[in-house]
């Protein structure tokens, strides 16, 4: 059983919620406190290392702290009702898929309970729970197509709808997008808003969109710049959210510093190859003469001169994986050199060739 750690402001500030992008756009009907509680549970998972959902304990005092409530010892009935409500929550996908055989769209509905079980025993200061194994693909071993957000950025939001919309915006930003255009009916379906919000635009705008704008701009690391509406005839049918990071200049500066550090290290490694022999099947044997860094395009290349005709060949280097490829070309040149016995015999001093490879 996974034992709980003491909750404090520093731990909350460091907590990161990691979820697959499909989870971001799924349906799960929760009120604000229930959604915060579930997001906190997800934040306790190590999405890169955990392979199973463990049986966990969550102190009641921790739940109250997440909700920023003073009631540290709620009564049994209150916690029982909370557990009963959370036990009914499900992850729901409701979408259309193109059938490859018939080439027609097929409606698909898939639902999975969020918890394998959730338990509270009167007198205990914690609840015990275990997440449903079916959710592993969305919350564990996330290597691509996933979204991360800081729990601290949603903790003070007043509306569950705000938290859900914030999740979507972060998901798009992670894909280098600063706008999200979505069909109004699709969004209302994902948020599972009450029928009156669907029938009356004014209510949906006031209690969902305006509140989301207030929560996101006031409580998170994003700024919701504009919510555009699009009409079909006289009816609003689509929305477009325009957004960005707050303190964008600071973020850009941080990214630039990170990139400069990366290229500095890359050039340090590449400089060790200058004067060395490499072999590529397309161009034969070459000597590395220098590297070129085009700062305007942030592209770096290693330049080598062919022995056969003295022409120059450029190899793009984008990351450290390309360095490994370059190392293989050097190893190949060394291998061919020592296989060429006559070349070694004819060398006046074998030591002269040593520097080609070391």
Q: What's the gist of this structure?
A:
With 358 residues, the protein is of the alpha+beta class.
Could you say which structural class the secondary elements and strand pairing correspond to?
Answer: alpha+beta
Mean pLDDT: 86
CA-atom Rg in angstroms: 29 Å
Q: Return residue spans where pLDDT drops below 50 for at least 5 consecutive residues.
A: none
Number of strands: 14
Work out the strand percent: 25-35%
Query: How helix-rich are the residues, as a percent range?
Result: 40-55%
Biggest β-sheet description: 4 strands, antiparallel
Tell me the strand order in the biggest sheet: 11-12-13-14
Helical element count? 14
Distance, first to last CA:
53 Å
* Succession of helices and strands: HEHHEHHEEEEHEHEHHHEEHEEEEHHH
What global shape is seen? elongated
Task: Explain what the structure shows.
- By secondary structure, the chain is of the alpha+beta class.
- The strands form 5 sheets. A 4-stranded antiparallel sheet has the order 11-12-13-14. A 3-stranded antiparallel sheet has the order 2-6-5. A 3-stranded antiparallel sheet has the order 8-10-9.
- 20% of the residues are buried.
- The protein has 14 helices and 14 strands.
